[in-house]
Amino acid sequence: MATRERREQDRERRRQDILRAARVVFAQAGFRRATVEEIARRAEVAKGTIYLYFDTKEAILADLVLEALAELQAQLIAASDGRPLLHPDDKLRAMADAYLAFTERAPDYYRLLTAFDGGQVAANISAERGELILAASNRTLDLVTQAVADGMALGIFPRGNAHHAATVLWAALNGTLALLAHPIRRAMIATDLHDLYHATVELWLKGLSCPDGAPYNPAKEKLL
Predict the structure, then answer these.
(1) Alpha-carbon torsion 63, 30, 33, 50, what sign?
(2) Crossing angle (nearest 10°) for helices 107-118 and 57-79
């Protein structure tokens, strides 16, 4: 039994070595240009060893995406559930701040999430991995949705579709990050990322409810 456990531990260590190496290679070369050969060299294993653990380069990326989502989820939980006395609007601000901090502290993880979302990677991974990533992504968005729903239940926000509102925030924040990642657009806007990011959060919070108390509702039949 001890020998089998030791083999399993060795196998998991080797898998983690490969993932750490791939994270560096993807960050340096980008996912498209990165090669399995380079990952193997950095992990100090034979190329064939990689395929004992991962069928394709996309499968490696998928497992790194799961790691990134787990890290992001932990940070969002620490910002929200870890501070139960915060009002829902302040929880949402705290989670938005946690997301920004995640993109700055782990930019390679953030780029991996973007690479996965923006390409054909999902078509080249197993259905099982795809389902795991979808479930992890939904858990992350559900944290934001719950904070919005709590605000609606307490009367801080008018009642409406909390999931839709959370999705709008997600889209707005990712749009802000993508916009200021481009040097020409940064020069055009001439503003600091943190200023624009926080202005986006505040505008979204303000837009969540109109002065007459009705939910912000560009498509009423979808929100109510």
Answers:
(1) negative
(2) 120
How far, in Å, CA of 161 to CA of 98, rounded?
A: 23
User: Tokens 């944290």 map to which residue?
Assistant: 143
pLDDT in tens, 112-166: 888 776 556 777 788 899 899 999 999 999 999 999 999 999 888 988 899 999 9
What letter represents residue 24's amino acid?
Answer: V
* pLDDT at residue 211 in the model: 46
Nearest to 127 by CA among 117, 118, 135: 135
CA 149/CA 130 separation, integer angstroms? 28
- The CA angle 207-213-217, to the nearest 5 degrees, is 45
Given a contact cutoff of 8 angstroms between Cβ atoms, the answer to whether 60 and 121 are in contact is no
**Residue linked to tokens 């605000």:** 151
User: CA-to-CA distance for 10 and 6, rounded, in angstroms?
Assistant: 6
Enter the DSSP assignment of 216: P
Q: What is the pLDDT of residue 114?
A: 85
Query: How many Cβ atoms from other residues are within 10 Å of residue 224's Cβ?
Result: 12
The neighbour count for residue 70, using CB atoms within 10 Å, is 13
The model's pTM is 0.85
Which residues on adjacent β-strands are paired with residue 53? none
To which H or E segment does residue 118 belong? Answer: helix 107-118
Task: Look at residue 75 and tell me whether its pLDDT is greater than 70.
Answer: yes
What tokens were used for 16?
């983690």
